[in-house]
Amino acid sequence: MGSNNLTGVVPSWLGTIPELRHILLDNNSFTGSISTSLLHNNSKLQTLQLADNFLIGNIPQEIHNLSALEYLSLRYNMLTGSIPFGIFNMSSLRELGLKDNRLSGWLPNDICDVIPELTVLSLGDNQLSGQIPSNIYNCRYLEVLSLSYNNSNGSIPSAIGSLNMLQELYLGYNNFIGGIPQEIGNLSNLEILSVPSISQIGPIPSFVFNMSTLKVIQFGDNNLSGSLPV
Questions:
Q1: Contact between residue 38 and residue 10 where contact means Cβ atoms under 8 Å apart
Q2: Strand, helix or coil at 38?
Q3: How far apart are CA 171 and CA 196, in angstroms?
């Protein structure tokens, strides 16, 4: 029922269908908060798509009850509060999309200890703070890492350079210091490197021009100098 003009609240009776596998209600005009009743009895639910609506309030802590969930997309809503740490204990999760909300808080240090097969982590355009966890290397199947437009600080961990499956990396418009680490050059499958406004000083790191898979390079709003290779 995605991409329609449905209104009202997301019906809580969807949580009473024990064999339900997929809830696809994205790109509608639902309002209100996510009912905890939706999350209690759906132990077989694999997909929860509520993106592109007008949902408000917190992400319920009870979301971790969805023990079979693989795809969670709550992007483009108006959700607030912190990301429930229980989400990072959902071992079946493959894609987590929370981009473009008003979420705050920080990422747990054990971010991928329980969900090592996560392929998409899309958290951009929120109000997240703190540092990128140094053990991000445990997300070894990650293909998309999107953290742009937050309040993250500290340095960009060199451990990102060990994410060999990574294809898209978005880190721009945070409060990072020190620019991008040399280890980013080890990402042999990277196609998009988006790092505007990360306090990069001096010339563009030379390793960028040796990454043969890159299709998009974004370094805008930094303090770059020097010349491009000829």
A1: yes
A2: helix
A3: 8
Domain coverage including residue 86? 1-100
- Do 110 and 85 belong to one domain? no
What letter would DSSP give residue 21?
Answer: -
Do residues 151 and 126 touch, judged by C-beta distance below 8 A? no
Q: Which two tokens stand for residue 71?
A: 């795809």
Query: How many whole angstroms from its chain centre is CA 182?
Result: 23
For residue 124, give both structure tokens.
Answer: 């951009």
Question: CB of 204 within 8 A of CB of 180?
Answer: no
Q: Bridge partners of 32? A: 55
- Residue 35 phi/psi, 5-degree rounding, is -70, 135
If asked whether residues 23 and 136 sit together in one domain, one would say: no
Same domain, 111 and 219: yes
Picking from 30, 72, 17, the residue whose alpha carbon sits closest to that of residue 49 is 72
Which pLDDT score is estimated for 21?
93
pLDDT tens digits, residue range 58-84? 999 999 999 999 999 999 999 999 999
Cα–Cα distance between 70 and 45 in angstroms, integer? 8
- Contact by Cβ (8 Å): 127, 102: yes
What is the identity of the amino acid at 153?
N
